[in-house]
Each structure stands twice: as structure tokens, then as C-alpha cells.
Amino acid sequence: MFEKYETFLKDLDLKLQKYFEVDKDKIQCRKGCSNCCKNADFPLSLVEMKYLMQGFLKLDKSEHDKVRENIKKVIESGKENYDCPFLMNDLCSVYEYRPIICRVHGLAYLRTDGIVNLPECSISGLNYSKNYDGKTVNFEPINEDLNPIALRKNKKIDFGEVRSMIKWFGN
Ligand code: SF4
After folding, report:
1. 119 touches 166 (CB < 8 A)
2. Among residues 56, 63, 50, 67, which one has the least CA distance to residue 6?
3. Does residue 131 lie in a domain region?
4. Which end of the chain, N or C, is more open, meaning fewer C-beta atoms within 10 Å of its C-beta?
5. Does residue 84 line the site of ligand 1, with CB under 6 A?
6. Residue 134: inside a domain, yes or no?
7. Section 29-40 average pLDDT
8. Kind and range of the H or E element at 67?
9. Backbone phi, then psi, for 119, in 5-degree steps?
10. Taking phi first (over 0 means left), then psi (-120 to 50 degrees means alpha), and beta for anything else, what does residue 96 get?
11. Of all protein residues, whose CA lies closest to atom 2 belonging to ligand 1?
12. Residue 88 belongs to some domain of the structure
């Protein structure tokens, strides 16, 4: 069912691994840093959401309960930006199944419209913060549009509708 999407993810991960390696002197990503999993709206396509739920099904009961509780809290808060319900103790509980936006986050890249896309954490003293003073980008960004919108233009996969993650849960 997810054959094409898994092939796409495998290729994407290989490519991203190379990009993270190229920019390693500017990157501060590490296990336990969950900056990019908080206070965002996490736009996901239908395919990404269904795949994410495959990861959810692999969790145990206490983890299921925790994710459900997190989802309920986000829905009740009514906030457009929220902490990801799958984040547990600052780690992703569905890491292998995480959506595209989570995979590309952390890299600075050149979009097709000519804008340099910097990760949010660049303004929090993390990735690229030494190479970006809030105005000027003084490094060569990755020369590929890694925005999920651009990546989903892959002709082999019909990604379906895109919604904020929490909206897939009926909010
Ligand atoms: S799915 Fe995982 S990596 Fe993505 S925002 Fe949620 S906790 Fe973070």
C-alpha cells in the first residue's frame, strides 16, 4: 500500500543525509532537541498522515493513551500552532514514519521562487545561526527546493489533500 511512498522516502532520506553532511558545520540537530516539533502547524498530506498512523499502530497502549491525550489537549486549545502530539520526552515516537516536513527540517535551501528557506531554529541560536544575522545569509544554501510543497510534486505519488496535522483528527 505504501510501496511508492516508501521508495520516495528512501530516496529523500539518502539525499537529505548528504545535504546534512555537506552543511554539518552549520547544523546543531541532535537527539533530544525537539525545537522543530513544537509550536508549529505541521502541514501533512493524506498519504503522509496515513503513514504516520502506521507508526502510531506500532506504539504500546500507554503511548497510544499519551498521544490521544496530547491530541485532545491541542484540539481543546484551539491553537493553530501546537506541539506535535507524537512528541514524547523530547523524542519522536513515530520517527521512522514521520512526515516530509520533519525530515527536511533543519536544512537551509534555495526555493524555486529564489527565496532562501531557513529553518525556524536559525533564530534560536541553532542551525545556521552563526551564518545568518537575521538579515543577511552569508553562506551558500542547498541548491534544491526541499519545501514539502515542491517535493510532493513527485508525479509517481498522489499525495492527496494537505491539512495541518491536528485537522486530520477532526479539529
Ligand atoms: S512527527 Fe515526530 S519529528 Fe515530526 S513533529 Fe512530530 S514528534 Fe517531531
Report:
1. no
2. 50
3. no
4. N
5. yes
6. no
7. 95
8. helix 61-77
9. -65, 150
10. alpha
11. 92
12. yes
Q: CA torsion sign, 71 to 37 to 35 to 150?
A: negative
| Closest C-alpha to 82, from 42, 120, 39 | 39
Position 60 in a domain: yes
Q: How close is the Cα of 49 to the center of ligand 1, in Å?
A: 12
DSSP 120: G
Alpha-carbon span 125 to 14, nearest angstrom: 27
DSSP helix/strand/coil, 110? strand
Number of domains, the chain: 1
Ligand 1 touching residue 146 (CB < 6 A): no
92 Cβ closer than 6 Å to some ligand 1 atom: yes
**Cell numbers at 56, concatenated:** 502510531
- In terms of DSSP bridges, do strands 116-117 and 109-110 run parallel, antiparallel, or are they unpaired? antiparallel
pLDDT (tens digit, 9 = 90+) per residue, 98-138? 999 999 999 999 999 999 999 999 988 999 999 888 788 88
Boundaries of domain holding 45? 3-107+158-169
Q: pLDDT tens, 53-95? A: 999 999 999 999 999 999 999 999 999 999 999 999 999 999 9
Report the separation in Å between the CA atom of 61 and the middle of ligand 1, taken as the mean of its atom positions. 19
Question: 41 near 146, Cβ under 8 Å?
Answer: no
